[in-house]
Amino acid sequence: MELQPAYLLHRQAWRETSALADILTLHDGRIRAVARGVMRPGSRTRHRLQPFTPLHLTWQGEGDLKTLRVIESQGPGAMLAGEGLICGLYANELMSRLLPLSMPVETLFAFYAALLEALPFPERRSGALRRFEITLLEALDSEPVFLDEQDRPLDREGRYLYDPSLKRFRPAPAEGPAFEARALGWLARGDWDSSGLAGTARVLMRQALAPLLGSRELRSRELMNELMRRRRNGTR
C-alpha cells in the first residue's frame, strides 16, 4: 500500500517492546494497529509515533488489528501545553471512543489537522474545537438539526431545549435554562467562531455528544476540571 497521512490518537505498551495504537488515517478513518518493537530502547520509530505529529504510515492485515510497517514523521507536531494540550487530548479521546473502525472520515481528518494548528492560540481554540465537534457529529449522523420537533423553522423570538433523540429542538418552559433561538440561528449558519456564541455552542455540543458517550466520563474532561480548580485556587 502507499504511504497514508495519519495521526496517532492513543498508544499503550503491548508485550515487552511493542505498542497498541489507535490511529486516525486520511482514507481509512480510525484503525487499531500493533507497532512492533516501537518501545525497544534505541528504536528509531519510538519518537516518531507521538500524538499531534503528522505521520505517513503503511500497514498490513485484513482484520480489525493491523500491523504497522512504515512510520514516517512529516514534520514537527503541534506544540501544546496546558489548556491547549488538554483540548488536544479531548479531541483524540472523542475519536477513540466514538469513531467505528475503518469508517472513512476525510473531512473530519481535515478539521482535526486545522484544530491542531489552532490549539496553541487561545483566541482560536474554542471555534476550532466546536467546528471539529460538529464535523465529528456529522460523520456519526448525530448533528443537531436547527428545526423544531415538527421540522418547522425555529421562532426567532423563542427559547428552546435540545432533544438529542430527535436531533431537534422543542419549546422551553418560561423559566429555566434554554437556548435562545437567535443564537441557534447564528450557529445554524455556521458561526462557530463568535465569542458571543461560545457558551451556547459549547453547551449544545456537550448535549449532542452526551448520548454517544454514555455515563463514562471523559478522562480529558476530568483533567480540564482539575486544571480549572487549580487556577481558581492559585495552584498551577
Automatic annotation (TrEMBL):
A GO CC annotation given for this chain: bacterial nucleoid
Short name of any one Pfam family annotated for the protein: RecO_N
GO BP terms, alphabetized: DNA recombination; double-strand break repair
SUPFAM superfamilies reported in the protein's UniProt record: Nucleic acid-binding proteins
InterPro entries the UniProt entry points to: DNA_rep/recomb_RecO_N, NA-bd_OB-fold, RecO, RecO_C
Keywords: DNA damage, DNA recombination, DNA repair
Domain DNA replication/recombination mediator RecO N-terminal: start-end pairs: 4-72
Function: Involved in DNA repair and RecF pathway recombination.
Cited PANTHER family: DNA REPAIR PROTEIN RECO (PTHR33991)
Family to which the UniProt record says this protein belongs: Belongs to the RecO family.
Full protein name: DNA repair protein RecO
